[in-house]
């Protein structure tokens, strides 16, 4: 090989930063199919998150509590503003709304049983309330979504709280998508749709259009339920400061803010990756809004979207959240992306099933196909057997319990006998981006980018 | 005594709705008259009993919302979302109705003697709507099931993204929405229209109506179909 050939060989293998393999695959796919990619799960891109924050454990200037001896309360009360029957939870970790349709009935039952055992709430989703989840959930939040699939007054009255969903972190401003393969007879009946069609749900509520209307909509739900049940308002994180303020003005008891890391059953990838702001930034804006209105503590705040560990929960609470909601983490706890499933007590490999979907355990985002190898995001009766409620509830209970133990351990290290006493002063940021978004000092400094002098 | 009056000029709405939810049936009340509604919102929402409610004047947003079993008559105009998500029973608006009349109703019958504004019957899930006058644009948008009978004219984009709901129109249609098309009336259509007109108290000839339903071209993704969505 002469010098010229050598140089040409290297040039021939030189990739483009602007057109890397990922973007080339995207273009090839678009050119082949003429459709954008639909997928499940949340954003894959790296964004500043709770890992970019650290808790400042006590040493001399603060006094810690004994991690294994002294008690630390996790009791959480939501909906104290107007509701005569607020929600009382044993832990500040709730299960986010995920629909029957996206998830199997076995999974919905698993969520309810685990939540009940740990004294927390679970939430319905697009598709309405199933008998299994109402029966298994001591505390059930009933979502009022733009599609209004299966929404009815009997279920409103059976619920413990009502969550008006305005948007989701994975797709603020966008509607849902449930591909035909998941519209089973039962799903179709609940959603009043023909079986097997691709269901595109609405992006906005049919009977109100803005915050002034929302005031009256909330009043309707209160009148309808005799002012007993807390009304949550859930927004996808975008213009969070203004959205939270408007939700407060509209009369929400609880506001749920879902950051861009939040998951979805099936949505355009362009939405998942390119619309919305990170949970970290949204949480800070939401707390700012509540403090600006002097409503911190009067209107409770639930944050969701990429909350995975007890450390995440502790940091979220320290930043000002009253509770967190978890969706994707819950699915992983149930076995999502696991390489095996258990059927009749026998462990089976799921690797071939992943391969048939064109993916592998650890990388699967094929919730939209309904062919979930571990039986979670499916309506196929045989696949759904791969996750039975007993096992699902046990795994999820273990996960939530672990999170709560981590939360209390960290809170005690910060000197708190109540996890709700965690405060912003207990936090520092590890990166300039996270410091700016969360408006916290960069670790070891007093510097908050864009806020204080260096 | 099987009837009662509530004067909203002196009695809070909360008292009326609480009575309808918790006391009306227990007290054997079959008819309630609401005086001086003056556009109040949320009158008789969540009524879940065979009680007849007469609203003597104009109602605000969501009158008779989520109704089940009851029969609500508004002797005036209705605001946004009248009879939204109604499950069963009957709502009769003697005047005009604002936007989103009968939105996402699952059952029951909504009758509006006058016109309705935009998005009448939006996301309809199975109820029936009869409009004596005309409907505004985007009526029947994303309607999944149920029937609409429009005795007057329809605005732009009628029946956009319909699923299995069917719309019958007597007058002119300004434009059809995506995936909506006019189809031939069948004997069962004439019969259905006749029954709905009779239930609403109208005497129009069903043969004056045309049928609008889904072409079903949006039921599945198809890049080659040049779908707009």
UniProtKB/TrEMBL annotation, chain A:
**Protein keywords:** Oxidoreductase
Protein name in UniProt = FMN-binding glutamate synthase family protein
Q: Which GO terms describe its biological process?
A: glutamate biosynthetic process
Q: Per the database record, which ranges form the Glutamate synthase domain? A: 80-337, 363-416
InterPro entries from the entry?
Answer: Aldolase_TIM, GltB, GltB_archl_type, Glu_synthdom
Organism of provenance: Sulfuriferula nivalis
Family per UniProt?
Belongs to the glutamate synthase family.
Q: Which GO terms describe its molecular function?
A: glutamate synthase activity
TrEMBL record, chain B:
An example Gene Ontology molecular-function term: oxidoreductase activity
InterPro entries annotated for this entry?
Glu_synth_asu_C_sf (IPR036485), Glu_synth_lsu_3 (IPR012061)
Protein name per Swiss-Prot or TrEMBL: Protein glxC
